[in-house]
Write a structure and sequence with these properties.
With about 425 residues, the chain is an alpha+beta fold. It has two domains: about 1-200, no CATH class; about 290-415, Heat Shock Protein 90 (2-Layer Sandwich). It has twelve helices and five strands. The chain has helices spanning about 1-5, 20-30, 45-65, 75-90, 100-110, 115-130, 135-155, 160-240, 250-275, 295-305, 320-340, 380-390; strands spanning about 305-315, 345-355, 360-365, 395-400, 405-415. Strands 1-2-3-5-4 form a five-stranded mixed beta sheet, covered by helices on one side. The protein is rod-shaped. The two termini are about 50 Å apart. Keywords: ATP-binding, Coiled coil, Kinase, Membrane, Nucleotide-binding, Phosphoprotein, Transferase, Transmembrane, Transmembrane helix, Two-component regulatory system.
Length: about 425
Amino acid sequence: MNSDKQATTPPAFAKRRWVLPAALVEDMYPQSRRADGRPRRTGRDWIVDFTCFLVAVGVGLLAADTLDQEPNLPRSMELADQVVGALACAAVWLRRRWPVGLAVAMVPVSMVSATSGGAALLSLFTLAVHRPFRYTAWIGGASLALMPLYFWMRPEPDLPFLASLVIAALLAVAIVGWGLLVRSKRQLLLSLRDRARRAENEARLRAEQAQRLAREAIAREMHDVLAHRLTLLSVHAGALEFRPDASREEVARAAGVIRESSHEALQDLREIIGVLRAGESDDAGRPQPTLAALDALVAECREAGMKITLAGRVTDPAGVPASVGRTAYRVAQEALTNARKHAPGTEVSVSVAGAPGEGLSLSVRNAPPVGEVPPVPGSGQGLIGLTERATLAGGTLEHGPTSEGGFEVRTRLPWG
């Protein structure tokens, strides 16, 4: 989590944290806190705190010069005023640690000490910056309510009562408004930082999702392609194993199919590995099969010894969208592979029909197997992939046993 926060720090301040307030540095760099849990002052904070201390002292010195103009003020009260003012100026260094306590304490102190006026205004400013508005409203409202009493007890010698009250009230309101502005700017910066962090997290999640979808697409292609080729190898290798008395022509044909299927499988595997290796494949790969390649697929399966009937009633085969034709081809390829594995030697019928606006439908049905067929490991995974492929293409896929005991795979794809 810390690394995420550091990564979302504004670039202009990444290496200059000292120019940021301690509140922002604490949120962006939690590890920078002190052992007692309080944030460390940055270089900017020390400069600001020292400047505030000098301002409080300067305002106190100006107020101390006006004490001599009060004829009814005893000398002891004048000294006490200055001592309380000095303590109030020293308390300015505690304004970050206890903003509410300092502001509350400055309300009665400013009533009895004119030299603590600067420290009282700075305490209101700090309260507005570091605490919610409700604290500022209550404490600032109390200070404004007590101002008439202060100027009634200690009137300004050069200004009338109303003018003194208006000037002091406007100064306090301006200080509080400045503090609220600083607080809103800090909250805006934090919200922008959080928004940037969320945007980075969402971008990372989208990239991970895109990678996962790409891997799933490659896995589907690998299963659809290699399963078909390897099944041909298995069928013909098994025929050679269980028919040692086959004629030379049958052995040569089987060996040719095995060689061709091995070559195609290696070529497909090489292309898939080239996709997985980022930037290492120079060629664009072979074009993906579409519905036009369905005849070649059926002819290849017939050469492998399957009994297949193909019925095509497509109005405009050349007008079938490439994505729809590719999905239909993969469904037919997987269904023929399953029929060869689970019902060897049976007759398979492939039916494809469709027209623009009506959709494209494809059905692959095989007769019930003769005899007992041993179970094949991993059965059903290809049908799951086909269902997902058809769903992504906007269509549907259904599969299941027929009433005669065979098996049928049906899909319907949109053709707008």
